[in-house]
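Handout, page 2. Input:
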Amino acid sequence: MPQHSVRSIGRCGWLGGARRGIVAVAATASLGWGWTAVAPTARAQAPGPDLFAVDPKSADELWEAVDYLTRTGQGRQAVPYIESFNKLDVDDAELLKLRDRFGAGSFLRLSDDPATKPFAKPMIDRLVAASQRLQADPERIKKYVPALLASPAEQDHAVDRLRESGSFAVPAIAAEIDKHDATSPKRERLVYNAGRLDTSSVPAWIAVLDAPDPALAGDAARILGDLGDRRAIPFLTYPAAAADSPPALKAAAAFAIEKLTGKPFALQPRSPVETLDDAAEALARHQYEMPSEQVLIWRWDAARNAPAPYLAKQVDVEGIFGGRLADQALKLDPNNRRARVVRLGFLLERAVDRVGYENYPEKAPEVQAEVLAAGPEVLGDLVRGAIATDRPTLAAAAVAALGKVADPALGSQGGRPHPLVEALSAPGRRLQLAAARAIVELGPSRPFPGSSRVVPTLARFLANNEKPVAVVVDGNPTRGAMVAGFLRGMGYETVVEPTGEAGFRAATQSADVELVLAAADQVAGAWDVQDVLSAFRGDVRAAPLPFFIYGPKNLEYKRPNLAANYPGVKFVILSDDPRALERQIGKPSELSDEERASQAKQAADALATIAARPRSLFKDDLAGVAESLSVAIGLRDVEGSVAAALADVPAPQAQRALADAILDASRDPDLRRDGARRLARSVQRFGPMLAADQEVKLADAFDAEQDPELRTGLGAVLGALRRASHGSGPPTR
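Output:
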């Protein structure tokens, strides 16, 4: 049975999960008071399984027939009655009365039978919409608010009804409270009854803490204390701690925290700044489970002089409330670096979400200015925090900014590698490329820990595939093929190798390799699984790749040394269920073809920059990626930059790849002209390393070429070859 939202728009719409929050509600409504279907009480039914003594006609009669037939497994016989019910003009109130009478299960049960299943979702959607409209109906709410001042029985009834509206009841109650003097018994009774609502009203009462009237804000604090939800504590902390808080609000907020925790505010285990930092950082790290992509948040509306709901995206919800908490922590302690990091992260993440990663910072220059002004220490902390909490896109944007303000020496910090160097080995294509480019742009002049990773990292981006690649290492071909099939179903291209040596080679060929999976047993060849791990973790190209070892359930306990000796390695329980594998390793990255092509171009340009700098720290490393460069010169959009890098590689592969590009008449004329100049320079510097047939073909091309500029370039190549061979005839080899 499909699960619909169990959160009413006015009920319990928390940011949930391990760390549950209190500022937003789902933009959907529930069927009622939860999902446990209670068996309906016995009702008089007509005799017979599908024949009723009186033909049902009213909405109540029709749904009673539907309920009976679906409960007794007669879904096909129920269909005519559902169709008749749908033709009636049933209003929200009547529909919800039917829900209350027959239970939510009566409607959810439609999904259980193939005959009634087509009617299930439309019917449930009607109930959700009706519940939402009822809960948010201002006229209905206003009818019950005055009863909060009536007899005890009427007060109890009004509280019960207003609970159904959750946060939507708060504006009317707050307005009624505000009508009475601060010392009025009526105001006291209203505050008392508001504190008897349930926790679904907390988001709106938090918004009332921002009311300009300190007395009303103080009442909101008292109500939050009475509601008993500890998730309100971070929002009560600043008014309780700030020196400039109005006395009434300050005292009420402190007392509310004491009531929620059982300890006086002054004796809380975490200081106010730490409490605010903790909550802001939890939001920054996405530790609050949002009820949906679009969530309803409550904020004080100055124009209405009341709390009001607003629909917002998840990233904006986190930024709004997390940024506010971080700002409050900074007000209490302006030197609080942790809050500065968190606040900067919200600012940057929201900007990237708004304009798109590929358009940042060009389309958000005002944000970039503030990000750069934060300085290298704060940016470095942000990079490390984003990496640690698996936010590679935020980390990539922060890395690009850090590269513009960091010390080019890139020295270790506190016994750890520089954040830019850490980013080179962190998971995520965007992040690795951003780190390598940032380091190249910095142009460090002296080696640093990790400097040998820069060029191999860039080279891995040159071979750009349409899909991310997963490498499977398994000496059992049947099992390896099964795992590969699961991965293809998830969106990966797969490479299956029987030996660790072959798997290692496959994993280091391209940046499109996103993960490696190896069988815990039966790895063929000379390497066992520990040898495979040693090779991967010891290589600058392979070390950043997520590595999974798969096997039986007790694998983690049978081989604990693997996790201990190779941090970051994860165990996967292998079964015949592809969904189980996806739950354990996650889905592949979803980069567009355009972004992958752009990444290849950026990597090629960075390699060309290295080649163009006479004393670049990374220039000697180009020879180690000659094979990748030689292949990449055949790819569109990167060939020019690749040719520039190849010209500085003293290897036969480099010269021969340049010659092949020059001799290919189908290639771009500008590439051929530029390539000829670069090949001539390479021969001058490193001597001739072309194949014999290439030298002959170059001479033939020179004789036949009509383009003056290309012919000049070919002439320079031939002249360099003659000089190297000290002869006067056609160059041969």
